Amino acid sequence: MIIQPGISLPQGVRDILPDEARKIGAVESAILSVFEAHGFEKVITPLLEYVDVLSLGMGESLKDRVLKFIDPSTGKVVAIRPDITPQIARVVATRMRDFPLPLKLCYNENVLRYQEPRDGKSREVLQIGAEYISAKAEPQADAEMIIMGIEALKKLGVKSFKIDIGDVGFLRAILNRLPVTEDARRVIKETIAIKDASGLESVLDAIGASIGERDRRLLLNLTTFYGEDEVIEKALSFSDDGDARASLNHLQRVVGIIAEWGLGAFVTIDLGEFRGFDYYTGIIFEGFASGIGKPILSGGRYDTLIERYGYGCAATGFAFDVENIVSALDRAPG
Amino acid sequence: MTPQGLKKRTWEDTLTIALPKGRILKEASALFKATGMDFSVLLHDERKLIYEDVAGGLRFMVIRSQDVPTYVEYGAADLGIAGKDVLMEQGKDLYEPLDLGIGACRMVVAEPRELGVRDNPGRWTHIRVATKYPNITLKHFIGKGIHVEIIKLYGSIELAPLLGLSERIVDLVQTGETLKKNGLIEVEDVMRITSRLVCNRASLKTKPKRVKEVVEKLSRAVVALRK
Fold first, then answer.
1. pLDDT digits over A200-249, tens only?
2. Closest partner residue to A290 among B95, B201, B206, by Cβ?
């Protein structure tokens, strides 16, 4: 085949040829059928948004990774969406306020995020996700999200996967009451995020006695609070803070509901997990499959995001990374 | 993915551990041996790059130290041993559950002795630095508000000032002997370095018990070694 020089694609995007497109289509329809069985209805959001509007729902981690340009017809700055959830928040707050709650919405769209080009990672990501919007934060809603994730992955035949659940509400409750500077809080957060117990120890040593013995032990334990659901009990025994305990109780209820559905074996817990979007306020979760180093689904509770668009209600949601699921299916052993 | 000749096991009962070629391998071997995880056969035969401990459900592979974070990030290895210098330079998204305490050294700014005696790092505004670690170097000087021109080299950094390539270097020192021989002195500390146990995110989530077991065993060995 002779390819004319100069005909190429920008870094980080690609064509998908029939073989792979077929696989992607099969994954998409299996997931959408699970969403439908749970009563989720599809919405379609636009490719472009005003940066100002999108910014209400984007944390610092995403703002620098957005493809922006000036709309020639208005002179305003627009962006290609890097994430669907803020769009759903805008739609719910501006167009669907008179719909009865809970609202169960799903979508199947592409997003564009700038990645470090050196790794050859793709910028365009195919996402299928669901969002559950309710008046109050309910453990049932979080559990239903995770159950749908497990059901879909089982249906697709993804082997040996786990859904790992954490809670940023719990972590923030602990960190926010520490009498330390913002800088120190950030460093503590960074060392916990990479489970660097020795690094955390030296940071805490440097801060000194302003952090009490009990808090110190809890913080150091956060680097090892991963595994089965007994870590929630362990964390409860270390925590006195009301907000932290409330978060752990909520988490325990979610895990309990999943277990009642007979799906407890698919769940792991990690209370030291910080990753994910800045708008998460409670439970966060990610799906992992054997042999795939990156998550195949991720989500969490975001109870303040829709309010930023002017409508106070609670929400939880998640999205599958379709291409990572296809590679998990291709590479699964046996 | 699996090289020929390796027995196929289910993914759940085997942990693949990426080890760095070179001086760290020997120290790591002693540490692992103390926990009953023995890969010392890899020390004796340099051409042997993979060793599988079938009974223990462990597979060890020896690769270039700079490649360890990449293997672990993509999940080709579940765990690995990497220097903090390599980890900081590459900035991959990995867990670093344990400081192994081995391979200890420091990263420093050094310059020729005759320049160093009258030099004050607090007055620098624009400098030229040769290094193997452009990202760490840039971050270090930007943090101090110093404009730095970086010359990326792949080895023998200490020659750069002698030949006039740059006035200063950022490099690792263990004893300081190499710097001394080349007429250089340390003027500033950048960071302390040791080797870390690193872990793939999906491996920690999908095999939490096995990962925790290895971390705990090694952690005890590290404490015992310090005493």
1. 999 999 988 888 888 899 999 999 999 988 899 999 998 888 999 999 99
2. B206
pLDDT digits (tens, 9 = 90+) for A290-317: 878 889 999 999 999 999 999 999 999 9
What confidence tens digit (pLDDT) does each residue in A123-137 have? Answer: 889 999 999 999 999
B73 CB neighbours in chain A (<8 A) are 293
**Closest chain B residue to the Cα of A285, Cα to Cα:** B205
Residues 6+ apart with CB under 8 A from B76: B1, B16, B18
In CATH terms, the fold of domain B11-103+194-226 is: D-Maltodextrin-Binding Protein; domain 2 (3.40.190)
Q: What is the pLDDT of residues B198-223, one digit of tens each?
A: 999 999 999 999 999 999 999 999 99
Q: Tell whether A326 is covered by a domain.
A: yes
User: Given phi > 0 = left and psi -120 to 50 = alpha, else beta, which region is A208?
Assistant: left
The CATH number of the structural domain formed by B105-192 is 3.40.190.10
One-letter-per-residue 3-state SS of A103-164: EEEEEEEEEECCCCHHHCCCCEEEEEEEEEEECCCCHHHHHHHHHHHHHHHHHHCCCCEEEE
